[in-house]
C-alpha cells in the first residue's frame, strides 16, 4: 500500500495532463456496442484458455465472470503460463467490467433480474461500482445477485479508478494489436497494465502509437521506474531517511538530497541518476512538480503548443514558471508550486545529469577538463559532495588560455543551466556555493533578508574583506560570471530596470526566452552597459528611474572587482589576460594590469579597456581598489559628493586634491591607489573625465597629433599661453583652461606624473635629488640644479619653467608653500597672477620665510629668460621685435638666454627708447634686480669672483640691494679688475641715470627730498634725478645729508661709468682699458706679434733695398 499511495497520486497527476483529448475519450467511453455486449465469449471454451479448466475446478459455474474471478487469483507463475491469447481474452473481459453498458445490458439482466430496477439508479452515479458495492452490502448473503456483484467487483483491477484513463484511451489499440495482458507480477494498481504496455511498446516498432494513449503509456512507464527505485533504495531510505515513509514524495526528495552521500549504495545512486535524466527530458517524471504546478502550467501555457503526447523538458517548465514570478505581473504561483520550483533548482545544480542539454553539449568537455570528478561519477555513481562537475566546467569557461576553455556549445549549456536554476537569485541553490559561503553568510550577512539575490549582493560587497573565504569567493565568482552576462539573472536589477531596459536598450519583454530569445553578449545588445550609459545621460528626457539608477550603480560597482564579471572586457581580452596578467588575481588587479599594459594590448582589448577606464574615471565606484582602501578618505574629505549620488569625475578630483593631506600621506594604500590612477590617466586624456568633457573639441582642433594626456596638456597649455601673451581673446574656454591647469598642477606635484620629464632627468634625480621625496620637492630640486643638468633634462626643465612661470595656478610648490601668505596678502588675487602679488609683499616683516624663498627663486628663474615672464613679453613684445630680434632669432627653443634680451632692453631703457608700457615693466625688473643681485643672471655670471671676494659679507644677508651697492662702491674705488664685471656694474650705474626708481638705495635715501622738491616732476628719462642734481648744485644744504652724500657718490659713479662705457677719447684711456681688460694677455700677444712682424719685415726689406742699391751702384 505504501507503493500504491505514491503511484496512485502520480498516475492521477500524470493522466490529468492529458487534457481535453482524454476527456473526449471519457465521454465517448469504450463501451462495447449493444451487439458486442450481447455477444458472449465462453472463456473456458477458447483453445488458448484450456488451463482454466485445469485450475478453476473449484468454481461452481464456468461463465466468464467465474473464470475471470478464478484467473485473478492465480499466482504469478500460473498467470505467466497462460498463453497470450487467453490473457488478451481475460483482459477484454476485465475491461468490460469498466463499461457501464456491459453492466447495464449484460451483468444486471443476467445476474440481478429482480434487483435490476433498484440497481439501475447507480448507472447515473459518478462511480458506478462504488454505488453497486454499497447496494450489494445491503443484500442478503444468500442472494445470487449479491454473489455475482461480489465476484464481479473482486475481478476488477484493484483501485480500478487508477487505470480508467488507460482503458479509455488505449482500448482500441490494445484490441487491434491483441496486447491485453493480466497483471502477472501482481503489481500495484497503477502498474497493473504494465504487461499490456510492454506488449504495446514492442508492437509500436511496426505500428506507431500516438496521442493520449502514448501519454498514458509514458505515465505507467514512469511509475514503473519509481517502483523500481524504491525497491532498490529500500535499505538506503531506512538508513538515511528514517522519518520518511516509502513511496511518498518526501521519501523520494530525501533520497535525492542524499544522492551524493557516501553511505548511499551504488545501485540506489544509479537509479536516482537514471531518474534524474528522465526528469530532465520530461518534467512529468517529477511527480511532485507535475502535481503541485499542474494548474499553473496549464494557466500560463507552459507547454507552448507541445502536444500532450510529447515530452516537455524540465528546463522549459521551470523557465516558464519562473518567468511568471519575474515579469512583475499580479499573478502569483501556488505556494506548493513555488516550493517544488525551489527544490528542482537545487537539484539541477547538484547533478548535471538533470540537464540533457548539458549532458550532450559537454559530453567531450567533462572527461577532458574534469577527469577526477568524472571518474568518481562513473565508479561510484555520484560525486564527492555534489555539483563539483558543474563547477569544474564553469571554472573552465573562465580559463584564460583557449585550450583550457570548454567548447562554445558547452558554455551555452552552462548558461542555460544557470538561468533555469536561477542561481543568481538564491545562494542556497548551488550546493558548492552554499557549503563554501555559509561561514561568511553567518558572519557578514546574518542580518540580510533572504531572497531576490540580497545575500548574493552582500557576499559580493565583502569580496576582498577579511571575512571573505577564498573558496567562497571562487564559487561566488563562478556563478556571477554567468549572471553578469544576462542582466535578467540579477533579480533586483531586473525588477527595477526592466522597463528602462526595454525602453532604452532593446531588451526583450519576457524573462523567459522560449518565445523571444534574449541575445547574449556574443549575439546581441549589452543591456547593462547600455543602462550604465543612460544612468549618466545629460538629457533629462532620457534618464533612468531613481530605483533603477541605484541598482545600476550597485551592479557596476560589484562587477568591477573582476574582469570576469565584465564580459565586454573579458571577451575581448582573453589572450592579453593570459599573456600579461596570469598571476594577477587580487581584487581589481587584472584591470590594473590591463591598464598598465594598455599600449601593448591587442586592438580589440585596448578599445574595451579604454572604454572601461573612461567610465571608471567618471565613476569612482568602478575602481574597486580605491573603493576598498579610500572609503574613510572619501567620507572625511568628499562627503558632499557621496551624498549627491552622482560623480562625473568629482570624486577623483577631490581625492587628488587631498592626496597630500596629512591623513592621506599616512594612509599609504589609499595614497598609492590614487596615484596609480593618476598614472594610468596619463595614457589618454579620455581617462580624466572632467578634462575629457571640457576639452574634447579643442583637443581635436589644436592637438590632433598628440597621443598621451601630457602631450595634449602641453599642447593646449601652449595655445593658452600664446593667447595670453598676445593679448588675444582665449580660443579655449574657461572650463577647459581650468582643467589644463589642474593637470599641470598635478604634474608639478610628482615627477611620476610626468614620465617624459622623469625619463629625461633620471640620472640627475639619482645624483642630485635622490633624497627629495616630498610633494613637489624633486622638481624644485631639479630647477635649483639647472646649471648642472644634462642637455635632455635641461631642455625638459626649461619647458616646465616656461609653463609654470606663465601661470602661478600650476605652480604646486608656490601654491602649497604660500597658502597662508596668499590668504593674508592676496586673498582676492586671481591665482594666475599670484606670483606678481606675492612679489609685492615678499619683503613685508610678517612674510613667511619659506614662501619668501620660493617667491625669490621664481623671480630669479623669470629673469633668466624673457620667455619665462609673460608680463614682460606682453608689455615689451614690440620693443623686443624692434631691438632684440637678432638675439631671439638665434635662441634655442628650450634653453635659457641668461638675461640677454633683458640686457638688450636695458640698453634701450638707458637711451629712453622703450615704449611707455615696456619702460614701466623694465623699471620693475631693474628695481627687483637692484634689491637682489641674484635676479640679474649677467651680474652673477660676470662678477661671480668679485661678489665672493669683495661682497661676501652681504651674500647671505637679507637682500636690500647691499651686494649691488657693494659692487658699485668697488667700481668707484677701481677694485673691479674683470672688464665684463666693470661693464655690467657700469651699466647698472648708468641705468640709475635713466630713472631714479631703478636705484632703490638712492631713492630710499632721497625719499623725503623727492616728495618735498620734486613731487611735481614726471618720472622717466632721468627727470627726477636731474631735479635732485640741480638742488645739489644750487642749494646743497636743502637736501638731507644722507641724500646729499649718496647723490654726490652717484654723480661720481656716473662719470666713471660713462668713461667705462664710452669709447676711449685718447691714448691714455685706451691704454687704461687694455691694462684693465681681462683680455689684456690677448692684446699683449697681438701687440708683440705685430711688433715682431714689423721687425722681421724691416730686416727683410732692408736687405732687399741694400742689394738693389748695390746693383744700381755697379
TrEMBL record:
Signal peptide feature range: 1-18
Keywords (A to Z) from UniProt: Glycoprotein, Membrane, Repeat, Signal, Transmembrane, Transmembrane helix
Transmembrane region(s): 1082-1102
Subcellular location field: Membrane
Record GO cellular component, one term: Golgi membrane
GO molecular function: fibroblast growth factor binding
Record PANTHER family: GOLGI APPARATUS PROTEIN 1, SELECTIN LIGAND RELATED
Name listed for the protein in its UniProt record: Golgi apparatus protein 1 isoform X2
Source organism of this protein record: Drosophila lebanonensis
Amino acid at each position: 500500500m505504501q507503493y500504491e499511495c505514491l503511484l496512485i497520486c502520480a498516475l492521477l497527476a500524470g493522466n490529468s495532463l492529458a487534457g481535453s483529448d482524454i476527456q473526449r475519450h471519457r465521454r465517448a467511453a469504450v463501451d462495447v456496442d449493444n451487439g458486442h455486449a450481447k455477444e458472449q465469449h465462453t472463456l473456458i471454451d477458447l483453445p488458448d484458455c484450456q488451463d482454466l479448466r485445469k485450475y478453476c475446478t473449484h468454481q461452481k459455474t464456468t461463465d466468464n465472470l467465474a473464470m475471470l474471478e478464478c484467473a485473478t487469483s492465480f499466482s504469478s507463475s500460473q498467470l505467466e503460463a497462460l498463453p497470450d491469447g487467453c490473457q488478451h481474452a481475460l483482459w477484454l473481459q476485465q475491461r468490460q467490467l469498466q463499461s457501464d453498458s456491459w453492466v447495464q445490458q449484460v451483468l444486471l439482466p443476467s445476474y440481478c433480474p429482480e434487483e435490476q430496477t433498484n440497481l439501475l439508479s447507480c448507472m447515473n452515479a459518478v462511480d458506478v461500482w462504488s454505488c453497486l458495492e454499497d447496494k450489494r452490502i445491503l443484500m442478503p448473503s444468500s442472494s445470487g445477485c449479491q454473489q455475482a456483484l461480489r465476484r464481479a467487483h473482486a475481478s476488477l483491477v484493484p483501485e480500478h479508478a487508477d487505470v480508467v484513463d488507460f482503458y479509455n484511451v488505449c482500448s482500441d489499440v490494445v484490441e487491434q494489436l491483441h496486447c491485453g495482458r493480466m497483471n502477472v507480477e501482481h503489481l500495484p494498481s497503477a502498474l497493473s497494465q504494465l504487461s499490456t504496455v510492454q506488449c504495446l511498446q514492442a508492437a509500436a516498432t511496426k505500428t506507431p502509437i500516438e496521442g493520449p494513449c502514448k501519454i498514458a503509456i509514458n505515465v505507467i512507464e514512469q511509475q514503473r521506474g519509481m517502483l523500481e527505485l524504491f525497491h532498490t533504495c529500500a535499505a538506503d531510505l531506512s538508513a538515511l531517511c528514517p522519518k520518511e515513509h516509502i513511496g511518498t514524495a518526501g521519501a523520494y526528495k530525501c533520497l535525492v538530497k542524499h544522492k551524493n552521500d557516501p553511505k548511499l549504495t551504488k545501485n540506489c545512486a544509479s537509479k536516482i541518476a537514471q531518474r534524474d535524466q528522465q526528469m530532465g527530458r520530461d518534467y512529468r517524471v517529477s511527480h511532485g512538480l507535475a502535481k503541485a504546478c499542474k494548474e499553473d502550467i496549464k494557466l500560463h501555457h507552459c507547454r507552448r503548443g507541445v502536444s500532450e503526447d510529447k515530452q516537455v523538458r524540465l528546463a522549459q517548465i521551470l523557465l516558464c514558471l519562473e518567468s511568471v514570478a519575474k515579469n512583475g505581473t499580479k499573478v502569483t504561483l501556488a505556494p506548493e508550486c513555488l516550493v517544488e520550483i525551489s527544490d528542482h533548482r537545487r537539484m539541477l545544480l547538484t547533478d548535471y545529469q538533470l540537464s540533457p542539454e548539458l549532458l550532450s553539449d559537454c559530453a567531450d568537455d567533462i572527461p577532458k577538463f574534469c577527469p577526477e570528478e568524472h571518474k568518481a561519477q562513473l565508479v561510484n555513481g555520484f560525486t564527492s559532495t555534489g555539483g563539483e562537475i558543474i563547477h569544474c566546467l564553469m571554472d573552465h569557461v573562465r580559463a584564460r588560455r583557449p585550450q583550457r576553455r570548454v567548447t562554445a556549445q558547452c558554455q551555452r549549456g552552462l548558461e542555460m543551466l544557470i538561468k533555469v536554476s536561477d542561481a543568481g537569485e538564491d545562494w542556497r541553490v548551488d550546493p558548492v556555493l552554499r557549503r563554501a559561503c555559509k561561514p561568511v553568510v553567518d558572519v557578514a550577512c546574518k542580518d540580510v533578508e533572504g531572497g531576490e539575490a540580497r545575500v548574493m549582493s552582500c557576499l559580493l560587497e565583502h569580496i576582498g574583506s577579511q571575512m571573505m573565504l577564498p573558496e567562497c569567493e571562487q564559487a561566488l565568482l563562478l556563478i556571477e560570471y554567468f549572471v553578469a552576462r544576462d542582466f535578467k539573472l540579477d533579480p533586483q536589477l531586473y525588477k527595477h530596470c526592466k522597463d528602462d531596459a526595454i525602453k532604452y536598450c532593446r531588451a526583450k519583454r519576457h524573462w523567459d526566452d522560449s518565445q523571444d530569445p534574449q541575445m547574449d553578449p556574443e549575439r546581441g545588445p549589452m543591456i547593462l552597459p547600455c543602462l550604465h550609459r543612460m544612468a549618466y545621460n545629460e538629457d533629462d528626457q532620457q534618464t533612468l528611474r531613481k530605483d533603477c539608477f541605484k541598482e545600476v550603480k550597485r551592479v557596476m560597482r560589484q562587477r568591477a572587482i573582476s574582469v570576469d564579471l565584465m564580459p565586454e572586457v573579458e571577451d575581448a581580452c582573453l589572450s592579453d589576460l593570459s599573456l600579461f596578467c596570469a598571476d594577477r588575481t587580487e581584487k581589481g588587479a587584472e584591470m590594473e594590469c590591463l591598464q598598465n599594459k594598455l599600449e601593448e594590448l591587442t586592438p580589440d582589448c585596448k578599445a574595451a579597456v579604454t572604454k572601461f577606464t573612461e567610465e571608471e574615471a567618471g565613476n569612482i565606484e568602478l575602481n574597486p581598489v580605491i573603493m576598498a582602501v579610500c572609503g574613510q578618505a572619501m567620507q572625511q574629505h568628499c562627503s558632499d559628493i557621496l551624498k549627491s549620488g552622482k560623480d562625473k569625475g568629482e570624486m577623483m578630483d577631490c581625492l587628488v586634491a587631498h592626496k597630500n593631506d596629512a591623513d592621506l600621506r599616512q594612509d599609504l594604500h589609499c595614497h598609492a591607489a590614487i596615484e596609480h590612477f593618476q598614472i594610468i590617466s596619463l595614457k589618454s586624456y579620455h581617462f580624466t573625465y572632467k578634462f575629457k568633457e571640457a576639452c574634447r573639441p579643442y583637443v581635436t582642433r589644436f592637438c590632433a597629433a598628440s597621443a598621451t594626456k601630457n602631450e595634449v596638456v602641453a599642447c593646449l597649455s601652449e595655445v593658452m599661453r600664446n593667447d595670453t601673451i598676445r593679448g588675444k581673446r582665449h580660443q579655449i574656454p574657461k572650463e577647459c583652461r581650468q582643467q589644463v591647469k589642474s593637470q599641470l598642477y598635478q604634474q608639478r606635484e610628482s615627477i611620476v606624473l610626468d614620465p617624459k620629464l622623469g625619463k629625461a632627468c633620471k640620472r640627475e634625480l639619482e645624483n642630485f635629488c635622490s633624497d627629495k621625496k616630498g610633494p613637489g620637492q624633486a622638481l624644485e630640486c631639479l630647477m635649483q640644479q639647472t646649471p648642472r643638468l644634462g642637455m635632455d633634462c635641461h631642455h625638459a626643465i626649461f619647458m616646465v619653467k616656461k609653463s609654470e612661470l606663465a601661470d602661478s595656478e600650476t605652480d604646486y610648490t608656490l601654491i602649497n608653500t604660500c597658502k597662508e601668505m596668499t590668504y593674508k596678502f592676496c586673498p582676492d588675487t586671481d591665482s594666475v597672477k599670484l606670483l606678481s602679488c606675492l612679489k609685492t609683499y615678499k619683503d613685508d616683516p610678517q612674510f613667511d620665510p619659506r614662501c619668501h624663498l620660493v617667491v625669490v627663486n621664481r623671480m630669479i628663474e623669470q629673469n633668466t629668460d624673457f620667455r619665462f615672464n609673460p608680463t614682460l613679453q606682453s608689455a615689451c613684445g614690440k620693443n623686443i621685435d624692434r631691438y632684440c630680434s637678432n638675439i631671439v632669432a638665434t635662441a634655442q627653443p628650450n634653453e635659457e638666454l641668461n638675461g640677454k634680451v633683458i640686457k638688450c632692453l636695458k640698453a634701450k631703457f638707458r637711451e629712453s627708447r622703450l615704449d611707455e608700457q615696456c619702460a614701466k615693466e623694465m623699471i620693475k625688473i631693474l628695481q627687483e634686480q637692484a634689491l637682489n643681485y641674484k635676479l640679474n643672471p649677467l651680474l652673477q655670471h660676470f662678477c661671480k669672483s668679485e661678489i665672493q671676494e669683495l661682497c661676501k659679507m652681504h651674500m647671505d644677508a637679507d637682500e636690500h640691494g647691499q651686494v649691488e651697492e657693494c659692487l658699485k662702491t668697488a667700481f668707484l674705488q677701481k677694485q673691479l679688475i674683470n672688464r665684463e664685471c666693470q661693464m655690467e656694474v657700469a651699466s647698472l650705474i648708468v641705468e640709475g641715470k635713466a630713472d631714479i626708481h631703478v636705484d632703490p638705495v638712492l631713492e630710499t635715501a632721497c625719499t623725503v627730498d623727492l616728495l618735498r622738491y620734486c613731487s611735481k616732476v614726471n618720472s622717466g628719462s632721468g627727470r627726477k634725478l636731474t631735479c635732485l642734481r640741480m638742488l645739489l648744485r644750487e642749494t646743497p644744504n636743502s637736501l638731507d645729508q644722507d641724500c646729499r652724500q649718496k647723490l654726490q657718490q652717484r654723480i661720481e659713479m656716473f662719470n666713471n661709468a660713462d668713461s667705462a662705457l664710452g669709447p676711449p677719447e685718447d691714448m691714455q684711456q685706451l691704454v687704461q682699458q687694455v691694462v684693465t681688460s681681462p683680455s689684456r694677455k690677448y692684446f699683449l700677444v697681438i701687440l708683440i706679434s705685430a711688433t715682431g712682424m714689423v721687425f722681421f719685415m724691416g730686416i727683410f726689406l732692408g736687405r732687399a733695398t741694400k742689394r738693389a742699391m748695390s746693383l744700381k751702384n755697379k
